[in-house]
Structure formats: C-alpha cells, structure tokens
Amino acid sequence: MNGSRYPRVSATENGGLLMSWFEKVDSVQWALQWSEFSKGTWTEGQTITSGDPYFVNWADFPSIYEVGGDQLVSHWLQKSGNGPYDYNVQISHSKDRGKSWSESVIPHGDIDPKGEHGFLSFFQQQDASLGFVWLDGRHMGAYDPVTHSMGDMALYHSTMVDGQLGTEAMLDNRVCECCPTSSIQTGNSLIIAYRDRSEKEIRDINIIRYADGKWFEPYPVHEDNWLIGGCPVNGPMLAANGNDLAIAWYTSPNETPTVNVAFSHNDGASFSAPIRVDLSKPIGRVDLTWISQTEVMVSWIEMAEETTDIVTSIVSKSGNVQTPRIVSEIQPGRVSGYPQMEIVDDQLFFAWTEGGENGRVMTQWVSLSAFR
Asked: Which residues contact 164 (CB under 8 A, 6 or more apart)?
C-alpha cells in the first residue's frame, strides 16, 4: 500500500510469518499495522495502534513477535518531548492472536528526564516467558564535570509474563548509540548481540550470554578494532539452530567495509573466526537465517557500479561461501530501511521499503533452489 514503511518480519511456531509496518493514515498521522502468513496466504492488515505521535525512523522501527500459542507482543517508539530524540519504547500484548491489544506500557522506568530509548529486540527466555533488550539513553543527558563529556547510551534487559513487566536491569553501561540489537535463545543459553563503544571509540560487536543462572561478561565476537567517532547505525543479526549459532555483522576497520559471518558450536560461549561474504562495497544492514542443518543464508545491502542491491550468500559451518547473488535492486540511501528475510519451507521471503511519493513496503518470494 502506498505510504507504508519499514516492515519487520518474524517467524512463528507453526512455520508461518508475522509482519508489522507503519502505514500513513493521512498527511501527518501513522498507524502500526500487522499481518500473518499461514498456510500459503497473508491475512488482511490489521491495526495495532494509530494516531499517536510516533517516532518513525528508517533504522529503529516497530516489531511484532509470537510469545507462544496465541500470545503476541508488539513494540513501537512514541515521542515523549520536544527534543528530536525524546521518545519512549511502548509495548502492547495480545492474548487472542491480535484480535485485541492491551494498553501499551513503557518498560523503562526513566520517563523523566526525557531521552532516547529504542532498538529493542524480543526473545523467548528459557522458561518460555518473554525477554527483551533495548538501548537506553537515560544517562546521556548527564554532564560529567571531570571528563567534560555527556553520559553514555546503555543496554538494558527486562521481561514480560502475561502482559506484566518484570524488573529492568542494565547489562552494559556504555554501548554504541544507535545500532540495532539482536537477541536469541539456544538450547541452553540466551545470547545478546550489540555494538559496543570503548573509551577509545572502538565500536565492535559484543556478545552477552546468560547461562547456568547468570549473565557472563561481554566479549567481542571478533576484535575488528573499528575506530569510528560516531555511530554507524549498523547492527548485528543472530540466528539459532538448536545449540548452533550464527552471527552476521558489518564492520569497516581502516576504511575497509566488510560483512562477516561467524559460527558458535557451544551455545555462544565463543565464535569461530569471521568469514567475509561481501563483494567489496557493502553498506551493511544484515539479516540471517538457517536454511539447513549446516548452512545459513545471509543478506545485506551492497553498492554496485550503477545500482544499490539486496545481496545474499549461502555460508556453511565449514567456511564455504557461495557466490553472492542479487535479490533486488533498491533505492540508495536510508529510505530502504533494513531489508528483512525469513524462510518458510523452501521459500525465502524478503521485505523492504521503496521510497518516493508513492513509496511503500515491497515484498518478494524466492525459491531456495534459485540460490543453489
């Protein structure tokens, strides 16, 4: 539909898909819509929320997630003040598979002073309850007279059971300000991936792991040593297959843009050396999904001589990388958002945003056999 923007896709337990997106109501107002793909068809789009002063952003956009059974959750960002980055995370819960939605709640306790909160990712905890992490800017407005600097963005975690919020906890007190997070459960662990920010402005991808009843110290997936003075707005993506994990991420040390994939065979306690997959001019904005017991499909945006494209490659646990293939040409710049990818049976589903006056969410199904 014209005016739709920024799809987010997630898989369901029965092998289907959920997709959320923003859609224009009129010249100034938006609605958050959702649909489900099951048994070969998409349901008609339905509204989760509409009319509020949403923070509509190409990189930090809403999501929908299946908790279990007919329980769904959705999150979005809503303006909380006059500042350009004054906005809160809002979460709504449905017990009847989206027929009705609860009044939204704010998971972070700091609503004053106002600030930036976002880049949330949901996951199922080991007790099957809902967990989620987000970037929290509650300390960013605090000035330190000793260092003559402002405060830092932090990474927080909380839970939700039957629509009731749990206790929030800070996992890392200094992270990159606006890179998406990724979080997932394996058989024995919870794994959180995010872009860190060191005191020296090294911004590599970190892993935080919860196992055996405790959170372990963060560690880098790989020491890329990407020194960059500002946020690159390029987060990692995790995918799990039993106790096997894969991660994809963008990095650019020494001005060498790169998309990497790495594997973990020990529930995220460590990862293998990175495997480079790009064609030398990647923009990043990665996605990742397992397509067999031994292979993942990774997608990213790459610049060519005259086009900007969604590109994919199949990567095996043994380190083999198939020749990257173009899925679709897209518009350059931020307008395309973060292209989404999920697998259903032997079909891959892609979704992204097409800009312009008649811009809208674009989708495409591609048979997995076309990539082999």
From this structure: none
DSSP 280-349: S-EEEEEEEEE-SSSEEEEEEEEE-SS-EEEEEEEEETTS-BPPPEEEEEE-SSGGG---EEEEETTEEE
Summary mean pLDDT of the chain? 94
pLDDT at 258 over 60: yes
Residue 53: which of 75, 21, 86 has the closest Cα?
86
Q: Which strands sit side by side in the sheet containing 295-303, from one edge to the other?
A: 282-290, 295-303, 308-316, 325-330
Q: Is the peptide bond before 274 cis (omega within 30 degrees of 0)?
A: no
- Residue 83's pLDDT band, with cuts at 50, 70 and 90, is confident
* Whether pTM exceeds 0.90: yes
- Residue 249, both tokens: 């991420």
**102 with 120: CB under 8 angstroms?**
no
Burial of 357 (0-12, 13-18, 19+ CB in 10 A): exposed
Level-2 CATH architecture, domain 4-285:
6 Propeller (2.120)
β-pair partners for 44: none
Q: Which two tokens stand for residue 96?
A: 């009847």
Distances (CA, A) of 239 to 18, 191, 291, 363: 17, 10, 11, 21
Largest CA distance in the chain: 61
Q: Is 200 exposed, middle or buried (0-12, 13-18, 19+ CB in 10 A)?
A: exposed
What CA–CA distance (Å, rounded) separates 115 from 106? 13
Q: Could you give the strand order of the β-sheet that contains 244-251, starting from the edge strand earlier in sequence?
A: 237-241, 244-251, 258-264, 275-276
Task: Report how far residue 283's alpha carbon sits from residue 297's, in angstroms, rounded to the nearest whole number.
Answer: 17
Residue ranges per domain, the chain?
Answer: 4-285
- Within 13 A of 137's CA, how many CA atoms are on the CB side? 19
What are the tens digits of pLDDT across the range 196-226? 999 999 999 999 999 999 999 999 999 999 9
Q: What is the pLDDT of residues 32-73, one digit of tens each?
A: 999 999 999 999 999 999 999 999 999 999 999 999 999 999
Q: How far apart are CA 205 and CA 197, in angstroms?
A: 9
